[in-house]
UniProtKB/TrEMBL annotation:
Keywords (A to Z) from UniProt: Aminoacyl-tRNA synthetase, ATP-binding, Ligase, Nucleotide-binding, Protein biosynthesis
Classification via InterPro entries: aa-tRNA-synth_Ic (IPR002305), Trp-tRNA_synthetase (IPR050203)
Protein name from the UniProt record: tryptophan--tRNA ligase
Location relative to the cell: Mitochondrion
Family: Belongs to the class-I aminoacyl-tRNA synthetase family.
Record organism: Glutinoglossum americanum
Gene Ontology cellular component annotations, sorted alphabetically: mitochondrial matrix
EC number of this enzyme: 6.1.1.2
A Pfam family this chain is assigned to: tRNA-synt_1b
GO biological process annotation, one example: mitochondrial tryptophanyl-tRNA aminoacylation
GO molecular-function term, one example from the UniProt record: tryptophan-tRNA ligase activity
Length: 146
């Protein structure tokens, strides 16, 4: 199967695994996902979610990881003279640098006691969510007279 799909864009709800970047992705996976992320053929980099949604999505991703807290407009302005390929390389570098520590810690937690800590955190979170949902349902039932 080809990695090129014209309608593929980064979206966490999309069922295609290539449409999202996971902390468990290898650096090579991330490079490929960014390389083949849908953009357009217009020259330069600009932030315009309506006219350039694919490129704007990459700018938004980069803004989330920008250590200086730059806005999407500021990032687009910084890279406006770059080619799309060069901008994608910068997005890749940014993500790889930002995710490496998170990925390493996640792997360490998975390898420690077969991931028991993560299992405990998940179970505790599920118990708290259930308690909150139960409390909300009591309020709703009372409000509607059930």
């Amino acid at each position: 199967m080809s990695l090129r799909q014209p309608n593929l864009k980064m979206a966490k709800s999309h069922t295609d695994l290539r449409s999202k970047i996971l902390i468990t992705d290898t650096p090579d996976d991330i490079k490929l996902k960014i390389k083949f992320a849908m953009t357009d053929s217009l020259p330069g980099v600009s932030y315009d979610p309506e006219s350039r949604p694919g490129l704007s999505n990459l700018i938004e991703i980069m803004s989330h990881f920008d250590e200086g807290g730059k806005s999407c407009v500021d990032i687009a302005r910084q890279y406006e003279s770059f080619s799309i390929r060069d901008f994608k390389n910068n997005v890749t570098d940014c993500l790889l640098g930002s995710l490496s520590g998170i990925r390493n810690e996640y792997k360490r937690l998975l390898e420690t006691e077969n991931g028991r800590y993560l299992d405990e955190v998940t179970m505790n979170g599920a118990e708290r969510a259930k308690a909150n949902a139960d409390a909300t349902m009591r309020v709703i039932r009372g409000a509607v007279g059930l």
